[in-house]
Write a structure and sequence with these properties.
Blueprint (H helix, E strand, L loop, with lengths): L7 H53 L2 H11 L4 H32 L4 H6 L1 H7 L4 H7 L2 H22 L6 H18 L19 H31 L4 H36 L3 H38 L5 H9 L2 H16 L5 H49 L6 H6 L1 H19 L6 H21 L3 H17 L1
Helix pairs in contact: 1-3, 1-5, 1-7, 1-9, 1-10, 2-3, 2-6, 2-9, 2-10, 3-5, 5-8, 7-8, 9-14, 10-11, 10-12, 10-13, 10-14, 11-12, 11-13, 11-16, 11-17, 12-14, 13-14, 16-17
Length: 483
């Protein structure tokens, strides 16, 4: 019964809950932490966390994405599934040990932020115990969510209790790192239900290692330049506050596009299974449905973030974060761009075995982003970093649409834009009118979001958008059955 595959809808809800949960600790505490630590120390955290994330990326290699796909393909065979799990996990442990040795060397030679780097060692250690890819491959997102709720909210409580002034930055970093480690460890407790012990000497990690490298290259290319944004901001600006502004804007954007890309995480395992079963008609249907859903959800977020930014930032982050307003307005379009990029990769290119081919697009994006960082960051600082990211991610999106044209032609994407953009534009006008003359009001932000969502939904209904009408009919059908 534990191995019974859950519905896509339930998995989407559960995975969205988990993804939001991973962001909710810094988001819930952001108004408090931003005021206690200030932009400069938030910037120090942003920079040091990006450095350890760089090492963590090498520690996990490509096991997160490849592991999910490999488990999905053998989920019905317990013996093969158990062997595959231990072979992939062995790679993760070995690579993590190597990265920890390199990390210790960095700590020994570093002059700035040594204490913070020592504390962040816990986060690097956690990478070796991260087996969320296994549960994702089984489409068992309930196991992921359930055990992390208590840990995440405990960390939130500790932050409010222990972090009291700007000198408590080390406590903030320690709490976040330990909670990540505890969350990863908690995933091992239910493992015995679905994984058997195997003869370690009989494990063959060679073939898996080659595949993890194939998956690692595009992941590394995509991740390196996101970390480089923060490293280059540290290098080319004379204050850590720029990293602080960049970090705070990213928190909001990440939360928004997490809601859309959660569907990709859920669907990736299912699409891998469908491709292995050669059920191509079903694949095409699910791709179009997923695309329609993601465009419909992403576009109002783009317009909505831009619309509420001026009123939202002052009350949420406090004094000294005015620059975050312009960063959010510029970066809001990244919600749609990243959603499309992630959709094409997770639901088509990876499940269809085209990871190597997709690497080309990611490398193009990484190089583009790096070049524009060099040009824009010295002059425009955090604004330049965000513009460079938009250009880099857009170039990846273009490449991915070209690679996916057999199943997801650009015309399919364009077909879903007009009604959504018109509806979102109407929503933006109303949101801006509501916020006019207000700055820093929680109540106004809530009204903007509620009224904006209602206007967007009504506008789509008036324009006879098929997806919204279909969802409305399903809801009405369920209500009738309840009565």
């Amino acid at each position: 019964s534990y191995m019974k595959t859950q519905s896509i809808k339930k998995n989407y809800i559960l995975n969205t809950a988990y993804q939001v949960l991973t962001l909710i600790t810094p988001l819930i505490t952001a108004p408090y932490i931003s005021r206690i630590l200030g932009p400069e120390r938030v910037g120090i955290y942003s920079y040091t966390a990006s450095v350890v994330a760089f090492f963590t990326m090498f520690a996990v290699l490509g096991t997160t994405t490849y592991g999910q796909r490999a488990i999905a393909q053998c989920r019905d065979d317990r013996e093969k599934r158990s062997r595959t799990f231990w072979e992939i996990e062995a790679i993760s442990i070995i690579s993590t040990i190597i990265c920890i040795v390199a990390w210790i060397a960095l700590i020994l030679v570093s002059t700035d932020y040594k204490l913070y780097f020592i504390i962040l060692s816990v986060e690097l250690l956690a990478a070796g115990f991260d087996i969320i890819w296994y549960y994702s491959g089984l489409e068992r997102f309930d196991a992921i969510v359930a055990r992390n709720v208590a840990i995440k909210f405990s960390s939130v409580l500790l932050l409010f209790v222990l972090v009291k002034n700007e000198n408590d930055l080390w406590k903030y970093i320690a709490i976040l790192s330990v909670s990540k480690f505890a969350g990863n460890i908690s995933m091992w407790f239910p493992l015995r239900k679905t994984v058997d012990r195997v003869d370690l000497q009989a494990l063959k990690i060679g073939p898996h290692f080659k595949q993890t490298l194939v998956y690692f290259i595009p992941t590394a290319a995509a991740s390196i330049y996101s970390y480089l944004d923060k490293v280059m901001l540290e290098m080319f600006t004379d204050t850590t506050a720029e990293n602080g502004f960049y970090e705070q804007a990213n928190k909001i954007i990440k939360l928004c596009y997490t809601v859309t890309i959660s569907l990709n995480t859920v669907m990736s395992a299912r699409m891998s299974y469908l491709f292995s079963a050669e059920r191509f008609d079903e694949i095409r249907e699910k791709l179009e449905n997923a695309l329609a859903f993601m465009v419909t959800l992403s576009i109002p977020m783009v317009f909505g973030i831009a619309g509420i930014a001026n009123n939202f930032v002052p009350w949420f982050f406090g004094d000294g974060y005015d620059k975050v307003i312009i960063l959010l307005v510029i970066e809001s379009s990244l919600v749609l761009i990243l959603s499309m990029h992630n959709f094409l990769s997770a639901q088509y290119l990876i499940p269809s075995g085209q990871r190597v081919r997709s690497t080309t697009g990611v490398i193009v994006g990484a190089v583009t982003n790096f070049v524009f960082n060099l040009i824009l960051i010295p002059k425009f600082q955090s604004v330049g970093a965000i513009v460079a990211t938009l250009i880099g991610e857009s170039s990846i999106c273009i490449c991915y649409f070209y690679m996916s044209k057999e199943y997801v032609p650009i015309s399919m994407f364009l077909r879903y834009l007009p009604k959504q953009i018109v509806s979102a534009a109407a929503m933006l006008v109303i949101v801006l009118l509501i916020g006019q003359g207000h700055s820093g009001s929680i109540l106004i932000t809530i009204i903007q979001i509620a009224v904006g969502a209602a206007v967007y939904g009504v506008a789509l209904l008036l324009l006879r958008e098929k997806l919204v009408i279909s969802m409305l009919k399903q809801m009405l059908g369920k209500l009738k059955r309840l009565h």
